[in-house]
Specification:
Length: 243
């Protein structure tokens, strides 16, 4: 039995539920999904400032997950906030949804497009493409120009905008696959794949399967080199609980 912690780095309980649903939809029968979010922090992550705040919440959840004996962790925000810091802290594998979705797309198509939320988050996706080495695989990036939490307002407007942008990307980009650039879009992937006739990839599901595979192969995060345990220091004030 594997217990995989899926961390929504923002504090939206509705989005945590959406993300948990997407994770459970693909999890193996012997995998239990523990969908969590920080108790304090930022309600949605839409820029560098939000990512910095969210990263602390990710580290708190990693620490809690370790104490609960989880086999591995998913960081379910498309900016992969705190990913390398989380890997220093974690024993098991830690996979971010952007990284997972991009890797998956390159296994299915020679070029992919990304459809995300606000235009100001496009640069974050571009930075990740460079960091992970996928810049030359990404044909185009699109933003629906709606805030992250519009995906949870029940109107269906954001979901329809995602659908329209995916149709446009298929028509214009020459991409063979599309990556959904927000954890809150996770439950849209299967229906869009069906409708568009090409892989529309949700990073939550991709990351859950990658963590399952890494655990099944007997791998945890390397503790040799820069991802070794954090150096022992006394953390003070608001960070004492991370000691
Ligand atoms: N590009 C994004 O929309 N990133 C995200 N912000 C969140 O709060 N969750 C995401 O996945």
């Amino acid at each position: 039995m594997s217990l995989i912690q899926v961390i929504n780095p923002n504090t939206s309980l509705a989005m945590t539920e959406t993300i948990g649903q997407a994770a459970r939809a693909v999890a193996a029968p012997d995998t239990e999904i523990l969908a969590v979010c920080p108790t304090h922090g930022v309600p949605s992550i839409e820029g560098h400032f939000d990512e910095a705040i969210a990263a602390i919440g990710v580290l708190e959840q990693i620490k809690l997950g370790k104490a609960q004996g989880v086999s591995g962790h998913v960081i379910a925000c498309f900016g992969d906030p705190g990913l390398l810091a989380a890997r220093e802290l974690a024993s098991g594998p830690v996979v971010g949804i952007a990284e997972a979705a991009m890797h998956t797309a390159t296994l299915l198509a020679t070029r992919f497009s990304i459809v995300t939320t606000l235009p100001r988050t496009l640069v974050i996706a571009r930075h990740l493409l460079q960091q992970y080495g996928f810049s030359h695989h990404c044909a185009a990036l699109h933003a629906i120009d709606l805030p992250v939490l519009a995906l949870e307002d029940g109107s269906g407007l954001a979901q329809e905008k995602v659908r329209q942008r995916c149709i446009q990307a298929k028509r214009e980009d020459g991409s063979g696959a599309i990556v959904l650039g927000c954890g809150g879009m996770a439950t849209l992937a299967a229906s869009l794949t069906q409708e568009l006739g090409l892989p529309v990839i949700d990073g939550v599901g991709a990351a859950v399967k990658m963590v399952e595979s890494l655990v099944a192969l007997g791998f945890g995060t390397s503790k040799y080199g820069d991802l070794a345990w954090p150096l022992q220091k006394h953390l003070s004030g608001a960070f004492q609980h991370l000691n």
